[in-house]
Amino acid sequence: xxxxxxxxxxxxKLREARVQxxxxxxVLDHEAFERLVVDELDQLPDDMIDGLDNVVFVVEDRxxxxxxxxxGLYDGWALTERDRYGVGELPDRIIVYREPHLAACxxxxxxxxxxxxxxxxxxAHFYGIDDDRLHELGWA
Length: 140
Hints:
Strand order of the largest sheet: 1-3-4-2
Number of helices: 5
Shape: globular
Strand content: 15-25%
Largest sheet: 4 strands, mixed
Radius of gyration: 15 Å
Number of strands: 4
């Protein structure tokens, strides 16, 4: 497995599925948003977090395509797809996108809920849970 063949699992929120608040006065700078992400990570159950190996969490403003539809991305190999994984591998990344979250949320409570859902969704991809199953479970 080389870094160029890593799988990418995007967490999409379609605009039709939820009201966008693009003209909302709700703004949060990068540092404050990152603190919320860390706070929500701390709220997740230990058994969900303890199994994460060689994973980094990253906050970026927007996805590469500049859209506001993508809230998060798991960039790496799910545990179920790893035949051998060893020392020297680049870490998997869970990326949380700030601007799409702000565009989708009207206030901090809603933002915290959306960040929480995004984190659970992307961590689930690390464990090999696909989007169909996440949808069945209410996390998509």
